[in-house]
Write a structure and sequence with these properties.
Blueprint: H1 3-33, E1 36-42, H2 49-64, E2 69-74, H3 85-90, E3 96-100, H4 113-116, H5 124-137, H6 140-143, E4 148-155, E5 160-163, H7 170-173, E6 177-180, H8 185-190, E7 194-197, H9 200-209, E8 214-217, H10 221-224, E9 233-235, E10 243-249, H11 250-254, H12 258-294, E11 297-299, H13 303-325, H14 331-345
Parallel strand pairs: 1-2, 1-3, 6-7, 6-8, 9-11
Antiparallel strand pairs: 3-10, 4-10, 5-8, 5-9
Helix pairs in contact: 2-12, 5-12, 5-14
């Protein structure tokens, strides 16, 4: 065998071994890409509508990626709570976190306006679509979202006053102790009630023990959290809303394959609509159940009385807008665009 032929054979063997190594690396990379596990945390129980949305999103993503992505969900504060959700995502405790902007209003002053303005009579599906559009249209840094990848966003319906005694006037509400989310403190106070700050987990016991006379919240809680056992009336006047945002750790997002990113992006608007539609339908089910099983009554304000409430609450809306605008943020522009989107989608 000539030296030239020996050299050729040895080179061929080396190339074959190198090809095998490269193939092994590619196979390993492919296997990893085909087995992506994401953790998704939420603070409230699994039966609440945001958690139902979370489970639906996880199932849809798994199916649309042909099993490439598995999402492990952690509702009920089992991984992160409302107090540390966004920081927990930034620090990599969870890949994705879902929380309400009202729990950290200082972090999301502009976006939270879509929830803390009163008197906007809108269902959840329409408001959810509008909020998701706002997030797409306004610069992330103005919304407090520049460190995150937004997966989806949606809202509850407006909060309504749920009470043990009938409330159809300001005089009826005077002095009553009412559990409120943070954004409703000034609202209930302006109407003559006594706001009491409690978490959802504390509210049921507080109602049962008579510590509070009622609460402000979305009406699906009557059935989902069994609050209908301890309240008898709902006053039909829209108060503040709750904006929910699902965010992903930006580094985790950047590391995902392009096909997975595309599927997640495609799910964003769909899940906003899904969450809102599910809640609107579920609220009707909840109201029917509460009326049939606990004799709950829905009360309407007279036109004159509704005007009295609006007159008291409008200055709070203006003050909130001015406070956010004073931070150099487009508060009035966001409010106007939010109303415009609601009108377009109704």
């Amino acid at each position: 065998m000539t030296s030239q032929k020996k050299l050729w054979l040895e080179t061929s063997r080396r190339l074959t071994r190198l090809s095998g190594v490269c193939a092994g690396v590619l196979l390993s990379t492919s296997a990893l890409a085909d087995n992506i596990n994401l953790s998704y945390a939420f603070f409230a129980p699994s039966q609440t509508f945001p958690a139902v949305q979370m489970e639906h999103w996880a199932k849809e993503l798994n199916e649309r990626t042909d099993g490439q992505v598995n999402v492990n969900t952690f509702p009920g504060g089992t991984l992160l709570t409302a107090a540390n959700m966004f920081d927990g995502v930034l620090n990599g405790v969870a890949d994705i976190g879902l929380s309400a902007t009202s729990y950290e209003p200082g972090r999301f002053p502009l976006l939270n306006l879509a929830g803390n303005l009163t008197g906007i009579d809108v269902n959840s599906q329409t408001a959810s679509q509008a909020v998701y559009e706002l997030i797409k249209e306004f610069p992330a840094e103005t919304l407090g979202l520049e460190e995150f990848k937004v997966i989806t966003a949606f809202t509850s319906e407006p909060g309504y006053l749920h009470t043990q005694e009938s409330v159809t006037s300001l005089e009826d509400l005077e002095g009553q102790e009412i559990r409120v989310p943070g954004d409703s403190t000034a609202v209930v106070q302006a109407l003559g009630g006594v706001p009491v700050g409690l978490t959802q987990s504390e509210t049921g016991e507080a109602l049962q023990a008579g510590i509070v006379n009622g609460y402000v919240g979305s009406r699906e809680t009557l059935m989902d959290l069994q609050y209908a056992r301890n309240v008898s009336y709902i006053t039909d006047y829209p108060l503040t809303n709750v904006v929910f945002v699902a965010v992903m750790n930006q580094q985790r997002w950047d590391a995902l394959p392009e096909n997975v990113q595309q599927e997640i992006d495609a799910l964003g608007a769909e899940m906003a609509s899904y969450a809102g539609k599910y809640l609107d339908e579920h609220i009707q089910e909840s109201l029917t159940w509460a009326a049939e099983n606990h004799d709950l009554e829905q009360l309407s304000l007279s036109e004159e009385e509704a005007e009295r409430w609006s007159t008291l609450l409008e200055p709070i809306n203006e003050q909130r807008l001015e406070e956010v605008a004073a931070q150099g943020l487009p508060a009035f522009e966001l409010r106007d665009r939010f109303i415009e989107l609601i009108e377009q989608n109704q």
